[in-house]
Amino acid sequence: MASFIRTFVLTFSHKWNISMNNLQLLANILSRKGPPPAFAIAACPSLMPTQSSNSSPPQSGLDSIFDGILLAVPKFRRSLEKRLFRKHNFCGFMEHAEKKKNIIPCLECGHFREKGHLCENCYNNVRQETKEMQAKMGDDLLFNVPRSEVEFVYEGEKEVGDKYTVKMEKPRPSWFPKQLLNKTG
User: Which regions form coiled coils (predicted)?
Assistant: First the structure.
């Protein structure tokens, strides 16, 4: 019963629209304005026979309401490959990259470093020297920790008697002054 009413309402509204178009066309012709302007090859849609397709099911009222509305959302999700290609696009090469304005030369060695960070070259030199010092201490560092203060003595330096002394068989590096090991405060 509901489908019969739905088809009746749809066909009635379709016929009503056709008759209203015909009445408007007749009113335009009978008034002194004449027929509405149109191209010579264009036919009036109300005078053309309508083709009704019996195979398509009738549409509901909600379908006709939302038929002309386009939703501004993507139908399909972009794949990871497409997203990465858009992000690192060659046409917009380095589009998202920014220039670093905080790169300065190191005052000790001349290599470049970021402002507020240690120079990588100087840090590697200190790390290498520290590993050599630890290797020179040997097992004393791991198993027999000295109870007194540790002093590293390089070539050409004097030993102080009351400290645990580790002798290094090379000259002291220029960036590693002896005053660096003095206690302050």
Answer: none
Break the chain into its structural domains and give their ranges. Answer: 2-47+60-65, 120-181
Distance of alpha carbon 144 from alpha carbon 157, whole angstroms: 25
Tokens of 158: 């004097």
Q: How far is Cα 81 from Cα 88, in angstroms, rounded to an integer?
A: 10
**Cβ atoms of residues 169 and 133 within 8 Å:** no
Q: How many CB atoms lie within 10 A of CB 77?
A: 8
Q: Would you list the DSSP string of 54-116?
A: SSSPPPPHHHHHSTTPPP-S-SSPPPHHHHHHHHT-STTTTSS------EEE-TTT--EEETT
Tens-place pLDDT, residues 152-181: 889 988 887 788 888 889 998 888 877 776
pLDDT in tens, 75-102: 899 999 989 888 877 666 666 678 889 9
Supply the DSSP string of 150-165, one letter for each residue: EEEE-TT----TTSEE
Handedness of CA 99, 121, 123, 139 (dihedral sign): positive
Helix, strand, coil abundance in the chain, percent, nearest 5: 35, 10, 55
